[in-house]
Design goal:
single chain; 234 residues; alpha+beta; Phosphorylase Kinase, domain 1; Aminoglycoside 3'-phosphotransferase, Chain: A, domain 2; 2 domains; 6-stranded antiparallel sheet; 6 helices; 21% strand; globular
């Protein structure tokens, strides 16, 4: 364990051209699929080292990083930390985002603070949704929402029938599938595609004490989908 933690700081140092760094003297943040360690460099710059609990997911994580790096290149002011990787070492590094996770969203938060964060989130989402998708990340330049939704439901249905699904009921999938033509009719005229964060929950939205958005983290589930599938509230 000690050796692997030492490697975390060594890889981070290489990614910053040899600037020495150490792991912060604090416990890592623990999520359902990752551990996040804080790294402090000699020049006081702070990074996060995100380590997956399943190393077999590295190929998918690496693809997500490449997609995010494209977004960041196209939208450099988007409120999300830069990501850094060494392809042969399965750890995703990022700038450390100041602030705290939103965690809770309800009417007990003063209206002015809620409006402030919503304004920042709206700007973030507009930048994300309008980022052009290159052909390297999408097999097709357009896709009907009905087609995409049918394929998505069918994947869940197949997992259920094979007994590999963590949730789901075959009858419910078939009922939802039968509703697709009526549900998607008005949306199929919008055939463009865009990027979706994929997991925009309250713990991945980081805000300051005065409720300004400081960053959106955890881009593992980033995906490309038709515009009607990605444009929705967080």
């Amino acid at each position: 364990m000690t050796d692997s933690l030492y490697m975390l700081s060594q890889a981070a140092s290489r990614l910053r051209l040899g600037i020495p760094c150490v792991l912060a003297d604090e416990c890592p943040c623990l999520g359902g699929s990752h551990r996040v360690f804080k790294i402090v460099f000699e020049d006081s710059v702070q990074w996060a080292a995100r380590v997956s609990n399943d190393p077999d997911n590295w190929k998918a994580e690496l693809r997500a990083v490449r997609q995010f790096q494209h977004i960041k290149k196209q939208r450099p002011k988007i409120k999300a930390p830069d990501l850094f990787v060494e392809e042969e070492y399965p750890v995703v590094y990022s700038e450390w985002v100041s602030g705290k996770p939103l965690a809770i969203w309800n009417s007990r938060i003063p209206l002015l603070k809620r409006q402030r964060l919503l304004d920042d989130l709206a700007e973030f989402l507009l930048q994300l949704w309008t980022t052009p998708v290159p052909s390297t990340f999408a097999q097709e330049k357009s896709c009907f929402y009905s087609t995409w939704l049918t394929e998505s439901l069918d994947r869940g249905l197949r997992r259920t029938l094979r007994g590999t699904a963590r949730w789901g009921n075959a009858i419910n999938y078939l009922i939802m599938r039968s509703m697709i033509p009526d549900y998607t009719a008005e949306y199929d005229e919008y055939s463009g595609i865009g990027f979706a964060h994929g997991d925009l929950n309250a713990y991945n939205i980081i805000k300051s004490d005065d409720f300004h958005l400081t960053g959106v983290v955890d881009w593992d589930w980033i995906s490309v989908a038709p515009l009607p599938a990605i444009i929705h509230h967080p």
